[in-house]
Amino acid sequence: MSGEEAAGTVVSPGGEGEAGVDLLATHIVRAIGVRKIFTMGGEKVHALKGVDFKVERGEYVAIMGPSGSGKSTLFNMIGGLDKPNAGKVFIDEVDIAALNMYELAWLRCHKIGYIFQTFNLIPVATALDNVMLPMLFADMVQAEAQDKAVELLRKVGLGDRVFHKPVQMSGGQQQRVAVARALANNPAIVLADEPTGNLDSTTGRQIIDLLREINESEGVTVITATHDHKMLAVSDRIAWLTDGAIERYVSRDALDIQEGRADAR
Amino acid sequence: MPETEKIAILPYRKVFQIAWQGLRIRLVKTFLVTSCITLALAFLTYILFSNGMVAGVAERASEALRQRLAREGILEQMLSAEQRTQTAWMLGIALMNSFVGIVNAMLISVTERFREIGTMKCLGGLDSFIVKLYLFESLCQGIVGTALGMVIGLVLAYAEGVSLFGREAWTLLPAASVLRILAASFFSGVGLTVLGALYPAWSAAHMEPVDAMRSEV
After folding, report:
1. What's the confidence (pLDDT) of residue A115?
2. Higher pLDDT, B110 or B143
3. DSSP string of A141-179?
4. What's the ipTM?
5. Cα distance from B128 to chain A (closest Cα, Å)?
6. Is residue A260 part of a domain?
7. Residue B26 is part of which domain span?
8. Which contacts (CB < 8 Å, 24+ apart) does range B24-32 have?
9. For B55, phi and psi rounded to 5 degrees?
10. For chain B, how many structural domains are there in total?
């Protein structure tokens, strides 16, 4: 995959200047000079200070950084869940800001699969219904959606939990349902916001492996916001975010992984 | 994107199913809203029927009944302006109470499901889907609550009618009037509920997904 070669180097923030004139269509996500300002108690907080961020098709990228670094904000921008105050975000070369309500819903439905820290399953619906929901939003025939949902649940190892409700499942199982749901409409990108944040380390590991597996077998681009160091070992590339700016990119080869701790060279 | 227009036009059956499951899970709250409507509608139906019966006395009652009523002064009391204004006020307050109760209950229901709404929008659900979901939910509650209230009001009105007018109570209202009153009660009950759900549903649907999911309740 082309993503692997391009991601193999450590890039300094200064090297991102040419982002605006990139004509290669291999970038599934392109954020240029993204700024976001929140007003909290009358004070302006610069959550993102002009972030340039590019992800290639099929890449597995982790956005790392301490809490308050703007991780989640950047994640929301990429997911089309929030709009930047300045700068542009392109998903598959489409400027998100230019989309109307319907097109944005279409994008979220077909192009992006979301996985959340808190699983966010619909509590009243079974695993099957949860996975079917995005397909029904995509106007798929019910019977077809059902078959596909069962198949996806099998793939994530929940073939025997199809009719269970979220409350009848463990955290790890719920997150598996969420992974299946994220894949419902064959998205190009899976966005995972702290997918292991509410899981113990063993189940967290399983979810990470599952995401990697899907990334490799389906060629889905996976972008995770995380501060789970287990995520580093499987990512192609890590973007370190501090104080609302990308401090540096690190490729997997450049990682020095130690016992219980991983850091960049 | 040619498919744009077609997204999220869910089969109504599915919308209904999700709404219905939501109602079942939140049984206590569902019961509260429903009882709100039931009480108001019982009152409305009762008033409409007993007013109808009193009006029917002048046209249809036998001479004997009319004389008895005149002797006991019941009719005058019921037809007095004072009595009627009082009833109208009470009716208005009851309906308004129930309306406020419905809006309140629906707003709570929206608030505690912010995350769910945000998630649905992330999955590609349109605003109209969220609105539909809440309107269906209130429609279910409205129909059940109204039907129940109508039965209670009808029973009360005829129980009183029989005690006042004896057997003739059954003949005081022609079938057409009965149907008209039932229809009026039904539509005002269901209408009130759906109207009460409109603003909460709209405000739920127009939230940005991030805002919906950020809020902790």
Report:
1. 93
2. B143
3. -HHHHHHHHHHHHHHTT-TT-TT--GGGS-HHHHHHHHH
4. 0.78
5. 11
6. yes
7. 11-214
8. B24/A124, B25/A123, B25/A124, B26/B109, B29/B105, B29/B108, B29/B109, B30/B141, B32/B101, B32/B105
9. -65, -35
10. 1
Strand partners, A55: A29
| Section B128-146 average pLDDT | 90
Binding-face residues of B in 47-66 toward A, CB within 8 A: none
In chain A, which stretches have pLDDT less than 50? 1-22, 258-262, 264-265
Cβ distance A133 to B129 less than 8 Å, yes or no, reads no
In a domain, A19, yes or no: no
Q: CB A102 to CB B4 under 8 A? A: yes
Of the candidates B217, B201, B187, which has an alpha carbon nearest to the alpha carbon of residue B103?
A: B201
pLDDT digits (tens, 9 = 90+) for B169-211: 888 899 999 999 999 999 999 999 999 889 999 988 888 888 7
B122 interfaces chain A, CB cutoff of 8 Å = yes
CATH of the domain at A232: 3.40.50.300
Q: Which of A91, A92, A101, A102 should we substitute to test contact with B (largest number of B Cβ atoms within 10 Å)? A: A102
Q: Would A39 be classed as within a structural domain?
A: no
Give the number of beta-carbon pairs within 8 Å between A and B.
90
In a domain, A220, yes or no: yes
Task: Name the pLDDT band for B73 (thresholds 50, 70, 90).
Answer: confident
The separation between the first and the last C-alpha atoms of chain A, rounded to the nearest angstrom, is 25
Burial class (CB in 10 A: 0-12, 13-18, 19+), A40: exposed
In the prediction, which pLDDT does A228 show? Answer: 82
Residue B6 lies in a domain: no
> Could you tell me if residue A144 is left (phi over 0), alpha (psi between -120 and 50 degrees) or otherwise beta?
alpha
What six digits make up the tokens of B102? 């419905």
Of chain B, the percentage scoring pLDDT greater than 70 comes to 93
Q: For chain A, how many structural domains are there in total?
A: 1
* pLDDT tens-digit readout, B140-178: 889 999 999 999 999 999 999 999 888 888 888 999 999
- Band the pLDDT of B98: cuts 50, 70, 90: confident
Q: Residue A248: which domain range?
A: 58-79+99-111+187-264
Chain A contact present for B109, CB below 8 A? no
C-alpha distance from A66 to closest chain B C-alpha (Å): 18
Chosen for mutation from A40, A103, A106 (greatest number of chain B CBs closer than 10 Å) is A106
Separation in Å, CA of B136 to nearest CA in chain A: 16
Closest chain B residue to the Cα of A103, Cα to Cα: B4
